[in-house]
Amino acid sequence: MVNSQTYSNFMATDVACRILGVDPQVMLETAGLGALARSRTEVRVTAQQYFDCWNTMEVLSPRPDYVPHLGVAISRGPVIPVFFTLSCAPDMETGLIRLAQFKSLLGPTLMRVFWDGGLLRLEFDSVDARVPMPPSLGALQLVVAVENIRGAAAHLVCPVAAGFDGSEEERHMIAGQLGIMPERSHAAYLAFSPEDAKRPFISENPALWADIEADLKLQLAAQNDRWPVAERVRGALVDLMPAGRTGAEDVALALGISRSTLQRRLREEGTSYQTVLDVTRHDIATRYLTKTTLRVEEIASVLAYRDANSFSRSFRRWTGQAPVAFRQAMALSKGQVGKPE
Asked: Which H or E run includes 49?
């Protein structure tokens, strides 16, 4: 039986479309997903629908170099919490192993990390063997991985081998970005030297990783109806907020229950939807203000606020302080000098 699990289409409809200048509604309509285009809730799709969206974007993209352009923009652009698995790690191997655990949160792709012939090998594939991943999406995975690794290492890391199932033209398209001409292969893969695999990451942040890991595990567990519904709501929110979704309808859809059932179960646990939303936002905001250098505007975006002012008003209501003042106070309490925004 074909995998019927659904996945957030955030990376396609919100991230990739915006970067490429493609109208998300036009993309969904062209991909035969018109009903989803008119939905006011989060767009969740099957693996086949996800790949159909990607193939449609490929056709609609105004840029012939869309894969390297998109790969660089994704790695340097919006804050995507899953990528902290890599940047918070002490080295490449550790980071890639962590990322592999949570890769499916970004879409219907698997990631394998293993040693082969003395090289650290990284492979990407579809979650369902019957629904193959488009070759150009495999190419994108390679570019994003290399760009994220270089940013974390602050070093021009280049794979010693790479490949994906693309034409010679498609492989030439990303050769400059990878620093090597990828071969034509069934698997989308990268291979790195032992020296680069163990190269220290300057972005290592064990304190932030402890919190991020807990949130990502909640995201994976959000579909488990044995968990307390408040915890499942928090996990769903961590997934939905970067896409600008915070509504109870969005969360109920992600959990596979009705809005009324969601609210009833939260009441039974002695809480409310708004309370869980506020606590989740407060916890994540505090984490990013104290453990990262993200700007207030970036934090506001991750938490699905319209703008930094809206976020600042909420944060002041929670703590009695503006975000910048809170960050500076926390830095001073640790004997550090707070950097101005």
From this structure: helix 47-60
Q: Report H helices in 89-221.
A: 92-102, 135-153, 168-178, 194-197, 206-221
User: Is 82 within 8 Å of 144 (Cβ atoms)?
Assistant: no
What 3-state class would DSSP assign to 31? coil
Nearest CA to 205 out of 127, 308, 88 is that of 88
Please report the sign of the dihedral spanned by the C-alpha atoms of residue 295, residue 296, residue 298, residue 299. positive
CA atoms of 151 and 168, how far apart (whole Å): 28
Tell me, yes or no, whether 178 lies in a domain.
yes
Q: Please tell me the pTM assigned to this model.
A: 0.79
Cβ 217 vs Cβ 275: under 8 Å:
no
Structural domain boundaries, residue 152: 7-197
- The 10s digit of each residue's pLDDT in 80-97 is 888 999 999 999 999 999
What are the E-state strand segments in 80-217?
109-116, 119-126, 161-164, 183-184, 188-192
Task: Tell me how many domains the chain contains.
Answer: 2
Domain containing residue 223: CATH number: 1.10.10.60
pLDDT score recorded for residue 12? 78
Same domain, 180 and 223: no
Query: In this structure, are residues 282 and 272 in contact, taking their beta carbons and an 8 Å threshold?
Result: no
pLDDT digits (tens, 9 = 90+) for 318-329: 999 999 999 999
Listed range (63-77, 202-216, 218-232, 301-315) with the worst mean pLDDT: 218-232
Residues in the chain: 341
How far from the centroid of its chain's Cα atoms is residue 281's Cα?
17
Cα 238 → chain centroid: 10
Task: Render pLDDT for 248-300 as a digit per residue (tens, 0 to 9).
Answer: 998 988 888 899 999 999 999 999 999 999 999 999 999 999 998 899 999 99
Q: Is 179 helix (H, G, I), strand (E, B) or coil?
A: coil
